[in-house]
Design goal:
With 330 residues, the chain is of the alpha/beta class. The protein contains 14 helices and ten strands. Strands 1-10-7-6-5-4-3-2 form an eight-stranded parallel beta sheet. Strands 8-9 form a two-stranded antiparallel ribbon. β3, α7 and β4 form a beta-alpha-beta unit. The N and C termini lie far apart (40 Å). 52% of the residues are buried. Bound molecules: zinc ion.
Length: 330
């Protein structure tokens, strides 16, 4: 069983995770509506190139191209029968690139949402959800990932199904939720509620955090809430989108500059976040500048809300309210 992530966390003050997988593939020619995961089989060179670009930019952790690799998501592309094949390829290609890096790289097996609602709101049972994640986790583990990286989760049912599904592999798990709705996930979960729920999970996550969402300023307020709820010793993960998503010509675009992402990374260090990366829109060029900024930065005390807004931009009213409550409570 791989313990490389735990080991690196104990040896280093922080680790740099990668940037966007999906949006990066769309930028290199993946047609809209296509599943990026199918490229593990159809365009392995492009997948390898992307992994390598993030390693070359200075990442310590790369996520496999398997975000939508549950049978529920692959069904949308008539590929629900190819879960093992697709996830195995995603992990093997990443392992191959990591092996050529000349330094230690954590290969994290990405597992995103099934995209379905659980009963009683939807049709999916916990047994089905857990089985779907178990199928994906098994393939990723057998192909050599170091950790299972459960991300962009918005409901407790999905979180529990994913962690329970990962259990049989014996690998450590990292869990991040997407707090994209006024300081909460789409299903209304706050950072504090997320931390409380993780105490019920087996295995207990090695690290928890936030990813995707609506931009670096909002994510940073979430991370401060997570730090408060999880305590000083918890390993936290921040993977923010590259700026606030905007509609440009009918499509979502991310226009955060490398400098903005570098400043976000510095502020994450000030909050004591140990694993920092980007989500949608974050390219290797952003990651490279983030790495340089992190290496040059000596952490200072965590920012207040005014500093976050001044340096990274506005936050939602909901996030602001939660932040003020924290400030009064602490
Ligand atoms: Zn994202």
């Amino acid at each position: 069983m791989s313990d490389v992530l735990r080991k690196m966390l104990s040896e280093r003050p922080w680790l740099l995770a990668d940037g966007a997988t999906g949006t990066s593939f769309f930028a290199t020619g993946l047609p809209t509506g296509h599943a990026p995961e199918l490229w593990n089989l159809d365009e392995p060179d492009k997948v390898r190139d992307q992994y390598r670009a993030f390693v070359d930019a200075g990442c310590d952790i790369i996520l496999t191209n398997s975000f939508g690799g549950t049978r529920n998501r692959l069904k949308l592309h008539q590929a629900e029968g190819r879960v093992a094949e697709i996830n195995t390829a995603a992990a093997r290609l990443a392992r191959e690139v990591a092996g050529q890096a000349g330094r230690e790289i954590v290969v994290a097996g990405s597992m995103g949402p099934t995209g379905e609602m659980y009963m009683p709101l939807g049709e999916l049972t916990m047994t089905q959800g857990t089985a779907a994640y178990a199928e994906q986790a098994k393939a990723l583990a057998e192909a050599g990932v170091d950790v299972l990286w459960i991300e962009t989760i918005y409901s407790f049912e999905e979180l529990t199904a994913a962690v329970t599904g990962a259990r049989a592999t014996g690998l450590p798990v990292v869990c991040t939720m997407s707090f994209d709705t006024a300081g909460r996930t789409m299903m209304g979960i706050t950072a504090a509620q997320f931390v409380e729920e993780t105490h019920k999970l087996t295995p207990s996550p090695l690290a928890v955090g936030g990813n995707c969402g609506i931009g670096p300023s909002e994510l940073l307020t979430t991370l401060i809430g997570l730090r408060e709820a999880a305590g000083a010793d918890a390993v936290l993960v921040a993977k923010s989108n590259c700026g606030v998503p905007e509609f440009v010509d009918g499509e979502i675009a991310y226009q955060g500059t490398p400098e903005l992402m570098a400043d976000y990374a510095r502020l994450c260090l000030d909050v004591g976040v140990q694993i920092i990366g980007g989500c949608c829109g974050t390219t290797p060029a952003h990651i490279r500048v983030m790495r340089a900024a992190m290496e040059a930065h000596t952490p200072v005390s965590p920012p207040n809300l005014e500093t976050i807004i001044e340096r990274l931009g506005q936050v939602s009213r909901g996030a602001e309210k939660q932040f003020r409550q924290l400030d009064e409570g602490g």
